[in-house]
Amino acid sequence: MWKLALRKSSCISSYRANPLRSTGVPLRRCYHEDVAYGYRVPKKFEYPDYSSEQLRNRQQQAALVCLVGAYRSTGHRATDLDPLRLQKKQTIPELDPARYGLTDPNARFNIDGILAAPVRDESGYSSAAEILQALNDIYCGHVAFEFEHIPDTAEKRWLADYVESTSKESRPGSDKRRRFYELLVRSEAFDNFMQKKFGQVKRYGLEGAESAIVALDELFSLCNQSGITEAVLGMPHRGRLNILIDLLKYPPRALFHKLQGHAEFPESLPASGDVISHISSSPSLNYGYKENLNITMLHNPSHLEAVNPVVAGYGRAKQMYLYDNNTDPRCALGDRLIGIQIHGDAAFTGQGVIMETLGLSNLPHFSLGGTVHIIINNQIGYTTPATNARSTLYTSDIAKLVNAPIIHVNGDYPEEVARAMRIAFEYRRMFRKDVIVDLITFRRWGHNELDEPSFTQPQMYNIIRSRPSVPKLYERRILEDNIITEADAEQTRQSFTKHLEAELAAVKDYIPQADHLKGKWSGLVMSTEAVTQIDTGVAKETLQEVGKKSVSVDDAIKVHPRLVKHHIQARLKRLEEGKAVDWATAESLAFGSLLKEGYSIRLCGQDVGRGTFSQRHAMFVCQETENVSVPLNNISAAQGKLEVANSNLSELAVLGFEYGVSIQSPNILPIWEAQFGDFNNTAQVIIDTYISSGESKWLRQSGLVMLLPHGYDGAGPEHSSSRFERFLQMCNIPMDMSEKDVVQNPNMHVAIPTTPAQIFHLLRRQMKRNYRKPLVVAGPKTLLRLSAATSSLDEMSPGTSFRPVIPDVLATNPDAVTRVVFVAGKLYYDLAKAHAAQDEELRNKIAIVRLEELCPFPRQELLREIARFADASEFVWCQEETMNAGGYAFICPRLRSILPKNAPLRYIGRGPLAAPVTGISSIFKSEQAQILHDVFANI
What we know:
Layout: H1 2-17, H2 32-36, H3 52-60, H4 62-74, E1 108-110, E2 125-127, H5 128-139, E3 143-146, H6 153-165, H7 174-197, H8 211-226, E4 230-234, H9 240-245, H10 252-259, E5 284-285, E6 293-297, H11 307-324, E7 337-344, H12 345-350, H13 352-360, E8 371-377, E9 380-381, E10 384-385, H14 386-389, E11 406-410, H15 414-431, E12 435-440, H16 458-466, H17 470-480, H18 486-505, H19 540-549, H20 561-577, H21 583-596, E13 600-605, E14 620-621, E15 628-629, E16 642-646, H22 652-664, E17 668-673, H23 684-691, H24 694-698, E18 705-709, H25 724-730, E19 749-751, H26 756-768, E20 775-779, E21 805-806, E22 819-823, H27 827-836, H28 840-845, E23 846-851, E24 853-855, H29 859-868, E25 874-882, H30 888-896, E26 905-910, H31 921-936
Pfam family, one: E1_dh
Family: Belongs to the alpha-ketoglutarate dehydrogenase family.
Protein name: Transketolase-like pyrimidine-binding domain-containing protein
């Protein structure tokens, strides 16, 4: 036994002495790029080494070291965590003292450097029995801990010392316990009231997990006490209404008004609204400390956990704003803002967005300085028991991928829940990293109140129906402790119920209010129709200035020789000549001019700094030191900031993150670029539930730009297509455009620009108009370096703007045109080249018109262009995409409705296909050649 113990102790000692003991994700390295952008980061926490006396004591008490280590690593498996007692308390062999030769309960030990529990006597020693009791109380009670998986020794030691040294802290005072009780009772009273008044409504109540409201209240109080002024909260539907009504001060009359079938917004606003489990509130709370705590609860869609990356992005953007406007030089990331995410147990394990969002938590450009996660663990998902819902021991195990500590707590004990939150908060404050609280509860009803759960879980629900509620259990405890009386308890229930009755009666006089376009958003408007023409030109001198700045680097940055010649020198030459400006240069000119005007830009995606096609180079990496320079951040002292955020290999979470950034501030231009256009497929949930519909559902505007490289160039089935037809399908544009007064107020814009000047104007238009709309750009790949696809600085000068339609410039005699071909995207250049190869008579018979923006549908511009060709008898929509993809399905009915005398619209392009395109090169080339042939044939 003793040999085993000594061998284990030796391993522990050698681990501590290992200079690589802090490998994994270093505590502060995650912020290195944030420092480069001017943000101060907290100092890395270094736990002091053991003293020589402590080390000697550890060696002499090796068996005790092993026993304590066993409790820290496996004690959670011997705990009393399940309120339903479905999971039986286990006997864990590793926790048997005899395993380590500790058989005498009266043996005395010096625990200095071994255990931080306050069990020493006056001589500094403790008995084996006292130590064992302390270990069981700390690690095997109603709260359990997992932190031995953390690779950083300093974190583990801090957690062990904090958990152990605070284990004997006195119970909360009477006022605090009374507060807990009132929260629990009000939550139960609300659910009872809802059942009585709105019994046929799926409210997803908190019954069985009422202690979650105690957890949040304690967390809010700790935030307020510590000087945090902003909290960003995301949560699903379970218990949302309880928390809204009580903690977040959402007016009950507003909820009841909606439940009676009315809209939650004024009728004058163009909003479709949402269900009650998605509504939100953003109160300012004070728990008796200096500054208020402003809480922003974000709207959530039905798709589980999709709100999590949005919380992270919103919080990051707000954190940057707080930092840039804070005069306190001590302020570091995470000091003033905290992220809070509430999860369901089955969703936490099952939804990939959880893993993706956790994966962002310690990355530069994405970290919030720590998020507190609360899993409301009902031990069941809809009708699926835990044994079928996950392959791990705990639902929280997925968080170990970022080495987050995990605190499990039995939801039947609200005071222990509050303690768990205090430990989680202190860890986050100390280390600025994510922490998980696994709140183990139950669900009193089924998935919703109209469900019958005993169809599939009869034993679980026999137990649930035979046991008292969490508020009733806690009421018994504080009655026994004389904290309240029976009369107090009854008065608390009745007073809140009376309050709800009064709020229900007030519904008849309730007038909905809107909380949009306030604060930083004031001055913007809700759009009422599409505005496509706005002067976004910039003086040529300014363009040349910012263009030169975009490739100016400090002498300390040694740029790659190829970039010096082919990127820097080539750009300077184009700028000097004022012509043949390529795509990357025009994009830099848009960025630089906006930055100079005070806007900030966040460019995010996989490899965006360089660009997937090595075209952008918005950042230069020193070839000697690997230091990074972002030249556009050195235009002027008063400029905005360009954040070049090379993301991890995620789309769903990263796009959700950028959407969160976009709804936080209208003064940031957030751009997400997919490595290839089809990468947006894995982010479809964010596109469907937030980007395309967020303004309609919740009145939340977003100026997010999605750059999706698109074009059929032999890349095969996936990387050829951005699937922009899906975005068009989501656009709310009328099908019939024949009426003169047709109004278009698109939920988002979809463009396929073909010249650098067009992308310049598109990006500037995002910020220069007085509202925000998402913009989807099916961007180029081959056009990035195509000599024909260039622009002059004159096309970006004052008086110029984005053109939804570029008129035909190939047919020299409009009166001779008999066939008008409409096209979008890079295919235009193939058609133009083929057009030039035809004889003059044929060239004059065919006009080729470019649609640069498909949504909103460019009705007026197309009508003007069609009118130029009075003798045209044939109209063609031509695309390189398959017939069931691309723009055809969207364009066809709308274009037909404005053609003269209901002229037919002919289709030229690939036929229907299950995949976006063939992967056989010979067939691909043959199809492409056939498209070009058909455009000029039979005329």
